[in-house]
User: What shape does this take?
Amino acid sequence: MSRSGTFLLVLSLGLAPAAAALDEGPPPTPTPTPAAGPSPSPQEPTPAAPEPAPAVPETPPPALEPTPPPAPTPTLAGAAPQQASNVLNPNISLVGNLVGVSGGDRSLPDRAFDLSELELGIQAPIDPYARADAFIAFTPEGIDIEEGYVTFLTLARSFNLKVGKFRSNFGKFNRTHPPETPFADRPIAAERFFGEEGLAAVGLSGSYLVPTAFYLNIDAEITTIWDEAPLFGEETTEGEIRSGGRRRDLGYLFRASTYVDLTERTNGTLGVTFARGVHDPEGELASDALGVDFTLRWKDPRRAIYRSFIWQTEGYFTRREEDSGRDDAFGAFSYAEFQFARRWRVGLRGDYVESPEEKGALAYLTFWPSEFSALSAQARLIRRPDGRDDYAGFLRLTFNIGPHGAHPF
Amino acid sequence: MKPRILVAILLLTATPLFADRTLRVVTTTADLASLTREVAGNRVEIASLAKGYQDPHFVDPKPSYLIQLSRADLLIAVGLELEVGWLPALLQQARNPKLLTPTSYLDTSTTAEILERPREQVTRASGDVHPFGNPHYWLDPDNGRAIARAIAGKLSALDHAGADSYRQNLAAFEERLTAKEREWDTAMAPYAGTEIVTYHNSWPNFARHFKLKVVGYVEPKPGVPAGPAHVGGLIQTMRSRRVPLLLMEPYFDSKLPKFIAEKAGATLLVFPPSVGGEPEIKDYFSLFDYDLGLFVKAMQQRK
Assistant: This one.
């Protein structure tokens, strides 16, 4: 840490600055966040309530209002005239990820600095039955539809159906958009099996909250074969990954996850995911991935903004049918992050993947001026399959403007 | 694999809904739960998501809350974006279509008197400003009355058979509240005009009702930690105006407020803004009993 960093640390320890209180949850925003549904809800952009709330007189006769004042609805009638045209606009947000790289690791970009991603999010209810979410990534490689899907909210109790392109529900890490992960890179195992961007595909995703006394959630997805995922494709001569299969070959994914409050401060999440698809152009050779994920969180709700701890581990067991036989490989990563002051977090990640074997470690220190920006210094060491050690340093600035959508806990 | 998954989904979604007819009400805060209890008695099941000792701006959207929300018949929220950091995330995942309709959703800010509605454009450059007004409005007992009425109206609409009972409970609550208000106002009358400093801007409705004057905040902007210049200026203001009390919400770190109070010669009071903020604050009435008790005692000791 530089001298100015030390100075900031001293300042922050003494004067207790802001921090993100929600680990993966949406940051508390002073601006409207995408509505949970097409309903009047507190996050709807409702300009100054139409009816002036009357001061309650001294002791009026208790009387029930037969029709209580309706919750604010984003109708033109209820909107201030000059803002009426904005009320029904979707929520727009932008997440930027600026990364600087140093060190001799040849797998990383050549340039010292890169605006590695600008992610534009556009989100709104479509009608009383569904909502739409789109995330478009602008990267040095071009423009990419990261996600774009419609969620049907009212099909059945405890059930949602998502249709479109989305990040697959494989483990917990895969669904997090790259700029919102705590890391400047991706865990080796996730990148080796699922690619630089993680698993994403076009199709259907159903999610069911099982009505039991404890939390149990089941997800099932039927999609195209995952784009650019090495496990589910073949490498072309240009070094690109071509997804396996023909038009009728689909990818199937099934996930069960459970959550438990161990104490008021500590909780755990456990998930198991299975995904299957083909990887060859003829669609004859199958690939399977079994994922196990475990997350432990600690936070004192009485001091929510000052201290927190998270430990997350994901392991992937993969199997790839080849003409010559079967190819099994295991990979995993585990990271722990400790928020030791209101604005400061320190983290450590370990990586392992086999055949060929690679090991790595990433350490980082992140400063959060507010919940909407973070500056992180990270150092990484990877022992390559040939025994070479690759060192890399990262400097990363992430910022977020607008009401970025809610992320899963 | 395919057909099996579909059959599983169909079977699971066909599970019959719970048969009993007790209304299930979920409130975002313990204050709303207490007011609901006053109106509903034991007729409904009430669960509050945030605890009274938690900062209601920063609540983790834990999956265990989803279980409560997925079964709820009515959700009651403070609104004005107090819960914007966590409630939308929960509602989106709760998969309870009922809560997406105005019938089963009550935002009590629509019936209460709201202060500090910004007149100009709000951006995050001003910190965590609530663009639709100050959301801590339940801290004026008159607003408590308005909230209770709205809840009674909502419950009666959802449960016609209970309407009489809700009306009676509401009348009893209002009568008791009126008597209590007289008591509180009398106790606070000698301190009308007292200048105070608070940590977060949680107390405008409280200050207005009890005729106090908030002259500064420990936070330079809502949600933004103080720097040395702000702290110095605040201490100076408090000294020159002889501000007797600094109020802080229990979920903040007391180190800085202690330092400021000491330098400024003020008394620091840990002032819970919600029911459950201290074990003895069991309902909406004891919230004011507790806070006003602290206030009066501190003022008497300063004499």
